Amino acid sequence: MSIVLAILAAASSGYADLDTIDREVAGFTGAEIGQSGGAMNPVDRRLRLRPCGSPLALSWRTQNHESVVVQCGDPGSWRLFVPVKRETQGLGGTPVINRGDGISIAVNGEGFSVAQPGEAMEAGAVGAWIHVRPINAKPNAEAMRAQVVRPGLVSLPLD
User: Fold this and answer.
1) Where does the Flagella basal body P-ring formation protein FlgA SAF domain lie (predicted)?
2) Per-residue pLDDT for 154 more than 80?
3) Which of 17, 89, 91, 111 has the greatest number of beta carbons closer than 10 A?
């Protein structure tokens, strides 16, 4: 199905076609979902985005290629940040946090920092992005991604 047809099909349903967004991200990164260098996961299917009449604009969020920014070109429309799967070996370090380690999850914003205890869901070297879960999270809650700062500390920047 062409992108134009996918956009028209999504418009008739009232929401943007999330499969099209997944395909665009895969084309931009050059890797499929779940592969190293590709999106970590498909776009969350619970999203209800306005159909985009303009072509999607894709760019890297940072120089480290940690996530892709997907933006609808329509005035006042939406943008998404799609995390990219990266291998810790590629970051050139030995893991300083191992799966199951107790960690401190720091959320940092402009002029503030808040921390809470958590658990590492995977291993990572300094600078790697890993899945973590707050200690008080529900057992079926989705893990979040945070960057390893040092042994025992990960960070979620809000910039």
Assistant:
1) 94-138
2) yes
3) 17
